[in-house]
Write a sequence for this structure.
């Protein structure tokens, strides 16, 4: 039993070290992009990708299969790519494990998620109305719910990317650039 | 008001703020309560995302049934009610008991 626990603890430590390493590497990625302007541009891109996804769901509903495929894949690509970059730039604050964040980051994540919760709930209401009111093919409502869910889950990264302040140059005095 | 504010008051306010009762806007909360509220919503956000995934799975299953739009909407509405009660559930489950010391010298209402 105790040996088993010891092995588990060693495994846990190894995982922690591995995650630390991943985090260090991530902190050094895209060094010239770590400005508010870039983050805001990426936030806008994610919003655009989400809107394209929703447009794709509407196209599915109206039966334009070609437009649906283009919008669905294109929107997924735009939103997914921008979201990936945004997650690097925000230090995975909205998507990482709570345990690996410091107190301030956790507070910020909770605040941001509070807002995205409200937005996601509103989107669910829209999904209900959409399924009830809009006639169309059978899986159309599920497609729309899918697009809205993707949108709702990206909102927290969008808000973070939009609202996080620029780095303070004073913090970097005496630190050699990587 | 500020003298007799006990944990029970704070808890009531926290729950009220989450449920969104009129008159429990953010300005009525002390600085600890928004933290609690945000924490509860963070947990609820994860929960509601899982619920939505279940909803999606049901939606693609229901696509094979007649009148699939109404079926999916009914399921979404049900999960919506569940999902919006999650923050209050989280708070009700997690908040600690009142401390009897807070009530010393306070006349029962």
């Amino acid at each position: 039993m105790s040996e088993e626990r010891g092995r588990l603890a060693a495994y846990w430590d190894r995982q922690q070290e591995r995650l630390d390493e991943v985090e260090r590497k991530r902190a050094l990625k895209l060094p010239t992009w770590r400005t508010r302007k870039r983050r805001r541009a990426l936030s806008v891109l994610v919003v655009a990708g989400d809107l394209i996804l929703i447009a794709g769901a509407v196209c599915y509903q109206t039966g334009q299969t070609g437009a649906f495929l283009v919008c669905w894949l294109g929107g997924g690509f735009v939103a997914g790519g921008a979201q990936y970059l945004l997650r690097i730039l925000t230090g995975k604050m909205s998507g990482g494990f709570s345990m690996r964040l410091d107190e301030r980051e956790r507070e910020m994540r909770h605040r941001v998620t509070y807002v995205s919760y409200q937005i996601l709930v509103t989107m669910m209401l829209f999904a209900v109305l959409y399924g009830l009111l809009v006639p169309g093919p059978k899986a159309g409502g599920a497609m729309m719910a899918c697009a809205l869910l993707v949108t709702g889950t990206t909102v927290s990264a969008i808000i973070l990317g939009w609202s996080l302040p620029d780095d303070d140059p004073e913090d970097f005095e005496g630190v050699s650039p990587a | 008001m500020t003298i007799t504010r006990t944990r029970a008051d704070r808890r009531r306010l926290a729950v009220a703020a989450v449920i969104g009762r009129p008159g429990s806007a953010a300005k009525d909360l002390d600085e600890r309560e928004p933290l609690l509220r945000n924490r509860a919503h963070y947990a609820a956000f994860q929960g509601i995302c899982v619920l939505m995934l279940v909803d999606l799975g049901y939606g693609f299953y229901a696509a094979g049934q007649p009148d699939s739009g109404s079926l999916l909407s009914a399921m979404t509405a049900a999960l919506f009610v569940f999902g919006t009660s999650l923050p209050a559930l989280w708070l009700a489950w997690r908040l600690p008991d009142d401390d009897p010391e807070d009530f010393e010298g306070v006349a029962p209402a």
Summary: The first helix of chain B runs from residue 7 to 19. The mean pLDDT of chain B is 79.
